[in-house]
Amino acid sequence: MRKVRRRIVPLMVLLYVIAYIDRNNVGFAKPYMSEDLGLSNAAYGFGAGVFFIGYVLMEVPSNAGMYRFGARRWIARILISWGMLACAMALVTGETSFYVIRFLLGAAEAGFFPAVLFYFTLWFPAQQRVSVLGLFVMAQPVANAVGSPLSGLLLTLEGWGGWHGWQWMYVIEGLPAVVIGLLAPRLLTDRPSEATWLNSDERAWLVRTMDVEFAAKSVSSLHPFWTALKDPRAWTYGALNCGMACGIYGLGLWLPTIVAGMREYSGSSSTALGLLVMIPYAVAIPFVYHWARRAERTGLRALHASVSLGVAAFGLLGAGYLLSISPVLALTFLSIAATGIYSAIGPFLSMPSALYAGAAAAAGLGLMNSLGNIGGFVAPLVVGMIKDHTHNDQIALTFLATCLAVTAVCTYLFARRRPEGDAGIEAASIQAAARQPEISA
Prior knowledge:
The chain has 441 residues and is mainly α. Helices cover 83% and strands 0% of the residues. Helix 8 (139-154) packs antiparallel against helix 14 (270-298). The longest helix is centred in the N-terminal third of the chain and has 29 residues, at 41-69. The radius of gyration is 21 Å and the shape is globular.
């Protein structure tokens, strides 16, 4: 399993870092695009959020393609198309083109995240998947920590070659996805049975282990692709994921604007702004993997996800009310919020990913992520409308904190006594299912 982790996880983390930078760099471009193109806060919020409409509409069809054509081909297709459209953001000339390209970018990237979740179900047993997901989602704060100063630096290219700095930022940050997309078919292996980089004993053991888990899930939770879309558990986790996504994307897409209000510390320098925005994400990074490992060790996935979401709500609320009093304290609470938000993702996603196998995993995880990304549309739009009408960051951050707090409570109440929420219950249910044929005989 160490070989498998070393082969698969670093590449997936790198791909997600690139995806997240391309998805969120619009937050850095916002002040400059607004000035150059005349975008209002509401227009920016709609354009930032319409990405997720395209994402939602294409999520399940994309995961069907992943299941049909395999990881190597499909992830390569996703990477190349989203990289080209990420570069095309440099061609935006007004509200309409901003909306269209953001929508197409979402449609192109759709399926990448659930495709990776499904890919992990082929390679990692459920008990080991929480820490693997912790490593994978660590890419989000890493991307923001790396992308913040990088985007700030690229914005200083204003006027070079007759282009605005934000245009250079989109092109330079979009190209890596195209390059790695061309290399993906050589870098990825579809299934353990095809892993020539494992020796024959290792390959046989992994195939046998995953087949046993697949068979165990087929007793109670394996459904064909389309049947899984009717499973109420997938819809419930999708709704909970939507609440979590409101906090993730609401913070990510508006944090640069909020920090830009700290004029005393950021001045007018885009580089200084990038370094300030990096702080909350850099603080969150070490906690993400530690919390995922703790959730894996204790098996209390629902509890760990709920506690993290509660911490995130507390951090956002504190930042909202301290912003006008002390920018330093506000940034401290934003760091607490980022730590809570990103620490919740691994334990949370491990629950729906433990429910399914095979085609059902592709469908159920695609649906869950599709519904979750509705929050990525709602949060930026609502925050933009709040800021346009009230010019008040407190109200906007209170809205995001409320979304996270409600999600924390609902996640705990729904999942705490379910097998996927408590590994002890899950192990007992699998053992009972395994004994059932003996009892029948």
